[in-house]
Amino acid sequence: CKVHKVCVLPGDGIGPEIMEVATKALSIAGAKEGEEFEYKYCLIGGAAIDATGKPLPDETLATAKESDAVLLAAIGGYKWDSLPSAQRPERGLLAIRAGLNAFANLRPAIVPRQLADSSPLKRELVEGVDILIVRELVGGIYFGQPRGFGTNEKGERIGFNTDVYSEPEVERIARVAFEAARKRGKRLCSVEKSNVLEVSQLWKEVVIRVGKDYPDVELSHMYIDNAAMQLLRNPKYFDVIVTGNIFGDILSDEASMLAGSLGLLPSASISGSGPGIYEPVHGSAPDIAGKDAANPLAMVLSAAMMCRYDLSIPKVADRLEAAVNAVLDAGLRTGDIYKDGTAGTRLVKCSEMGAELMKHL
Ligand code: NAD
Ligand code: IPM
Ligand code: MN
């Protein structure tokens, strides 16, 4: 039995509520497979600002680097929304991603068969959808320089950011996406805005070049505006999508509506060497924080991705995923996925969903 060292970052809002469910589930599923976890709790986001003045204390990054993997819930909230951008909780999240060089953000959007009717889209459109969004996570407009505020020649205030990618940055994310596509449906769609942006022209060129090493993968290209539309018109067209930081952010929230809720989507942010960060796609949901109303399943599925990718304990991942499937089969629905009048379902709190999940591990 190996003791897996996990850096646990509950963060803000619903973060601590869903993290409690995920760590308990992980420990139980691990014990069944003879695996043990050592949790090191650290501060990030608003909680870290309140305690230390910094959104990512040095100690948190150091602990993360020494761990086998990082499990992160969510950061942010109204309380910190008026801070200058360099001091906001979100900067802590960006800093830990950059600090661990977690450049590849894998965001699967899979529609559980039990929920094909919870999507705002028609069942026949979403049933069987299985998309993997590969989002570049430590570059692009989130990190590009120059950025800031200034004054233009007319003396008016301006705000500006820079969308920039280097060839090696595009190449490494493209390789991750081609490798993933090779193991799945062998179709990769690169999403950009090369009809307008130079950064996207470079992106497309490099993706085409990398694609020469993957003749078995069918490569297509789509502009972001069209992709946003096609994702709703015909989501089953997509297998793997590769895209830059901001487009990937937006498309993954959009893709969550295929499954019916943001509360269902997990993600893995990995570098290929060193610990990855396993985090739901959603945020800290301040509108429902403290009400025991959050859906913990995206967090639990993120823990499952951690077991599969970083910790190489697929049997623990299988157990967590099977338990998620079982609670959905049993008709349990948190508010975000509850649809009034659906036979055999009932509205539950986060803690009840958690307790029921434990029974199925
Ligand atoms: P959000 O994802 O927190 O919430 C959007 C909507 O989805 C809300 O109505 C929320 O109640 C609902 N929702 C999200 N997760 C849910 C869950 N697990 N169960 C049930 N409902 C859920 O996005 P937002 O409101 O735009 O942002 C809130 C804060 O979270 C901001 O400070 C933002 O910067 C931050 N944020 C953090 C992360 C992260 O930590 N990875 C991601 C996105 C947003
Ligand atoms: C996400 C979030 C973050 C992002 C924010 C909170 C910095 O929206 O993880 O999707 O934009 O990457
Ligand atoms: Mn987002």
Describe this structure in words.
By secondary structure, this protein is α/β, with parallel strands linked by helices. The chain folds into 2 domains: 1-111 and 262-361, Isopropylmalate Dehydrogenase (3-Layer(aba) Sandwich), CATH 3.40.718; 119-259, 3-Layer(aba) Sandwich (Isopropylmalate Dehydrogenase), CATH 3.40.718.10. Helix content is 40%, strand content 19%. It contains 12 helices and 14 strands. The chain has helices at 15-32, 46-52, 58-66, 89-99, 123-126, 167-183, 198-211, 224-233, 245-259, 297-309, 314-329, 350-359, and strands spanning 3-11, 36-41, 69-74, 104-110, 130-136, 148-151, 157-160, 187-192, 218-223, 240-243, 268-270, 277-278, 332-333, 346-347. The strands form 3 sheets. The chain has a 10-stranded mixed β-sheet, with helices on both faces. The chain has a two-stranded antiparallel sheet with strand order 6-7. It has a two-stranded parallel sheet with strand order 13-14. A hairpin with a 6-residue loop joins strand 11 (268-270) and strand 12. The protein is globular and about 60 Å long. The structure holds nicotinamide-adenine-dinucleotide, 3-isopropylmalic acid and manganese (II) ion. Residues 5-357 form the Isopropylmalate dehydrogenase-like domain. It is an enzyme of class 1 (oxidoreductase). Catalyzes the oxidation of 3-carboxy-2-hydroxy-4-methylpentanoate (3-isopropylmalate) to 3-carboxy-4-methyl-2-oxopentanoate. The product decarboxylates to 4-methyl-2 oxopentanoate.
Helix and strand topology:
Layout: E1 3-11, H1 15-32, E2 36-41, H2 46-52, H3 58-66, E3 69-74, H4 89-99, E4 104-110, H5 123-126, E5 130-136, E6 148-151, E7 157-160, H6 167-183, E8 187-192, H7 198-211, E9 218-223, H8 224-233, E10 240-243, H9 245-259, E11 268-270, E12 277-278, H10 297-309, H11 314-329, E13 332-333, E14 346-347, H12 350-359
Parallel strand pairs: 1-2, 1-3, 3-12, 5-10, 8-9, 8-10, 13-14
Antiparallel strand pairs: 4-5, 4-11, 6-7, 11-12
Helix pairs in contact: 1-10, 1-11, 1-12, 6-7, 8-9, 10-11, 11-12
The chain binds nicotinamide-adenine-dinucleotide, 3-isopropylmalic acid and manganese (II) ion.
3-isopropylmalic acid binds next to helix 4.
Pathway: Amino-acid biosynthesis; L-leucine biosynthesis; L-leucine from 3-methyl-2-oxobutanoate: step 3/4
Domain Isopropylmalate dehydrogenase-like: 5-357
Cofactor: Mg(2+); Mn(2+)
